[in-house]
């Protein structure tokens, strides 16, 4: 996400020279390609599970959600609000003191802005306020700068301003105006501010917990050098607000490091559309270069297309040449376009109702509606449909909330084959699904199954998550419990058999 012209590739700004020295300690270097700009290359081999690079955010903020979080560590326990501005929460004096130099100026600005403007304070606007205040503090040498933590790296980020629609530019200008009214900094123009909002949109990362639930937003200028691939060789995870990039494949010396910027489950066309809308570029990774080829057409029809009417056939459907229906590429059965549209209209109505009901917290009714959606999707969509997968994910979450453990386990197992198809064998979502399965199986007394599921979870998550976090220590403890229980049961059965 850092950009530079090819002509300037050999004339690195001083900030990049300093960064290069710091990255050398990680076994990395910054390089430049004519089509993608800057990228991160490995200068040594990396094994699966090995940390490639880690970085604290230049600035970060927790999400606005029902779960309050500490501004420093993002923990959610023992929180107390700042008594002056009433905006940030802290889990204790340690985090509050560590944040004080930066929050002191923010606090003064927010108090001076008045209650009405504070009410319009979104996480994105607060992130921008913190960006300028940290720049000011580093410029005045109140807080230190390092090769990997300085505003010059933010200046190097691409903003894609020339490609942004006028409507979005107007929104950025309005947000910039609010930031200026709060900060009252003479050296910050609305134009520069709007440009930085565009940089945040293209470069900021959603901070997630160990189970990939969004908890905040952070700007990581060095991590932003890493380019996107729909088949990445590394994964970005977070430990608190620390960004950690780990290899998921063997990465040889001289190879570019890639992460995925988006959810990769979906057709090539869907991924391309998402990347273009959100990040303003067209992906040319090996997966996307297959667009339009037979294998890609087939996979798109399976993931986002329709089910064959022949119940014994699991073929995929392609639009007929007369545009009146879809023809199965396996058995030749034709499905009428009007029939498909009728089911799709009914589904859209139910999905809108389910979404509203779930948002209101009415889990019981939402469960009933999603269970009405599922058979319609099975009738309309391929059995590996992404839409069907999302419905089952919602049902799993709802049933967990309702503490219907048997029902939750049923859907957890139904989702697994879909995940195995759309994700690579080492992917955090697949590992977490095995983990959920294992927890439910353990809870329901299915020790043997729990042992298998938890073992598969550990095999994946020790690579994507490492082994030192609280989450992974808990998972490893559960696995040892399951092993001990399974061994005890086997010993008991063997003892009975020998009598």
UniProtKB/TrEMBL annotation:
InterPro entries: H3K4_H4K5_MeTrfase (IPR050869), SET_dom (IPR001214), SET_dom_sf (IPR046341), TPR-like_helical_dom_sf (IPR011990), Znf_MYND (IPR002893). It comes from the Eukaryota. One of its GO terms (cellular component) is nucleus. Transmembrane segments: none annotated. Gene3D superfamilies: 1.10.220.160, 6.10.140.2220, SET domain (2.170.270.10), Tetratricopeptide repeat domain (1.25.40.10). Residues 70-107 form the MYND-type domain. SUPFAM superfamilies: SET domain (SSF82199), TPR-like (SSF48452). Coiled coil: none annotated. Residues 26-262 form the SET domain. SMART domains: SET (SM00317). Keywords: Metal-binding, Zinc, Zinc-finger. It holds the Pfam family SET. GO terms for molecular function: zinc ion binding. This is Histone-lysine N-methyltransferase ASHR1. The lineage of its organism: Eukaryota, Viridiplantae, Streptophyta, Embryophyta, Tracheophyta.
